[in-house]
Amino acid sequence: MPRLLLLMTTTTYRASAFLDAAERMGVPVVVGSEHPQVLAAANPGGHLALDFSQPEKAVGAIVDFAKHYPIGAVVAADDDGAILAAMAASALKLLHHPVQAVVTARNKFRMREALAKAKMLSPRFALFSVDDNPAEVARRVSFPCVVKPLSLSASRGVILADEATQFVAAFKRVAAILQQPEVTTSGDETAKHLLVERFIPGIEVALEGLLSNGKLKVLAIFDKPDPLDGPFFEETIYVTPSRHPENVQKEIIDCTTEALKAIGLCEGPVHAELRLNEQGAWILEIAPRSIGGLCSRMLRFGDGLSLEELILRHALGLDVENFEREPLAAGVMMIPIPRAGILREVRGQHEAKEVAGIEDIRITIPLGQTLVPLPEGKKYLGFIFARDETPAGVEAALREAHRRLEFVIES
Q1: Model pTM?
Q2: How far apart are CA 345 and CA 366, in angstroms?
Q3: 117 close to 77: Cβ distance less than 8 angstroms
Q4: Residue 410 burial (CB < 10 Å; 0-12/13-18/19+)?
Q5: Are 24 and 41 in contact (CB under 8 A)?
Q6: Residue 42: pLDDT above 60?
Q7: Cα separation, 220 vs 227, whole angstroms
Q8: Which residues on neighbouring strands pair with residue 306, listed in sequence order?
């Protein structure tokens, strides 16, 4: 069995899901990370230290490594390694999205340009430098609008402004986020600019898919039953299958397919975020990777395969067409951070797990750690998972379980 090169930073949620998937499949794994592993010397074919901020240098290291330990697939656990994975796969002539398509998808301004060029529904948008005078910029935009970073994920730094005063505050706030050390030291030029686009009203949905030779296999369409109208855009509940009528779901799929073609993505996982209103379906974002956080745990395929197993099967050139999502409805709640402070205690977990339909609750922020809510924050308190016969039953179970949880936060 050929080796899998799994690219991941030490902050990812996704490591264990991919490692578990590889173990179930019997696939040997090379972990490519920004820090040397403690036991790397004992297993030189299983670890590779890489500088994610210098992708050309990292690709060279990967190619040299592959001469001694052949690699059969390259997969990024999340956004941080997406471009490097595409570059490495290209150098090794392995299945993957094209490098330029991944670069476009990872830059919200370039993505907007590609969609507008394809004459898709697109809001008015403009690129600005973090050094621009926000008061002057405010005179050049129309309201309501959204200020957002070019490459951060999980709604971090995304802020709605209804008028000039709010816009100036939002601009400064996003610029400050982009100046934080973990952003500026990444070597990414996107930290020097931000995007302003006209706010798109409507309800949000998401699509999880897998592309093979340009053909989209829809793995799930998610409803987001909570309104996402700002000023921040903290996502909470995802439920599948969608309760939208078939013609609306077809529009979601058609819009996503058209956007993928416009961007150039054609080989690997994709996660699309859309808004629906009376004008049709609008692309908010398309990511060249699978759904984030621990959310993939709600998805099972065939006789119990995980989403990560499907992704690895595809990357290794194995069949994925004959696997469909299980018939049960499923959902996840990303537990929002109610306020800033130090997490001291989580109460009611036993009571929450007793709610019919609840499968698991994972609190992912340790006690004693400081909580940072959106838009500056980039983590959720945890995740609640549910399954039921109907999407409505899943949503009700998630809401009731969350109601039973109490978070003790010290200011």
Answers
A1: 0.94
A2: 9
A3: no
A4: exposed
A5: no
A6: no
A7: 20
A8: 300
**CA–CA separation, 18 vs 178, rounded Å?**
29
pLDDT digits (tens, 9 = 90+) for 223-245: 999 999 999 999 999 999 999 99
> pLDDT tens, 257-276?
999 999 999 999 999 999 99
* Phi, psi for 104 (deg, rounded to 5): -65, -45
CATH of domain 3-103: 3.40.50.20
How far is it, in rounded angstroms, from Cα 279 to Cα 340?
Answer: 38
Does 231 sit behind a cis peptide bond, omega within 30 degrees of 0 on the bond before it?
A: yes
Fold of 329-411: D-amino Acid Aminotransferase; Chain A, domain 1 (3.30.470)
**How far from 285 is each of 111, 140, 181, 242, CA to CA, in Å?**
8, 24, 25, 19
Which of 3.40.50.300, 3.40.720.10, 2.40.300.10, 3.30.1490.20 would CATH assign to domain 124-198? 3.30.1490.20
The DSSP output letter for 127 is E
What is the spatial distance between Cα 220 and Cα 331, in angstroms, rounded to a whole number? 11
β 358-363/300-301 pair status? unpaired
Can you read off the two tokens belonging to residue 304?
A: 């119990």
At which residue do the structure tokens 């656990």 appear?
77
Structure token digits, residue 242: 């969608």
Contact 59, 87 (CB under 8 A): yes
Q: Tokens standing for 291?
A: 């759904």
CA–CA gap between residue 173 and residue 10 (Å, rounded): 26
Alpha helices in 227-344 (DSSP H): 246-263, 307-315
- For the segment 154-195, what is each residue's pLDDT rounded down to a tens digit? 899 999 999 999 999 999 999 999 998 777 555 567 889 999
Q: Name the one residue in this structure whose structure tokens are 């990560």.
A: 308
Is the Cβ–Cβ distance between 177 and 157 less than 8 Å?
yes
Read off φ and ψ for residue 151, nearest 5 degrees. -135, -5
Residue spans of the domains in the chain: they are 3-103, 124-198, 329-411
Query: Tens of pLDDT along 115-155?
Result: 999 999 999 999 999 999 999 999 999 999 999 999 988 89
